[in-house]
């Protein structure tokens, strides 16, 4: 929670988090709930995410397609699925996000930051 507030430069941002340790060989997985000022439909969120660099959308509820740690293993992308509107709040979205923490969470991020600083 503190880290997100620091990154967003917003000490007042309302965040809740729960950490769960599960026996997987790689990857971090997150169930993310977002509430925005203006409504963003699940379809619009999906379109925005599909155009984002480093993001791969795997989202077909009816076919049982959503990202798992196995999908992320050894890959640089962040995988997003289960994109849906959250009816419990006026402008809410729910997402499931998976990334290989050994790549995206550590080594790759360091390389990408160095590349940005070099330009």
Automatic annotation (TrEMBL):
GO molecular function, one term: protein dimerization activity
Domain Semialdehyde dehydrogenase dimerisation: 1-104
Superkingdom in the source lineage: Bacteria
Alphabetical GO biological process terms: amino acid biosynthetic process
Family: Belongs to the aspartate-semialdehyde dehydrogenase family.
Protein name (record): Aspartate-semialdehyde dehydrogenase
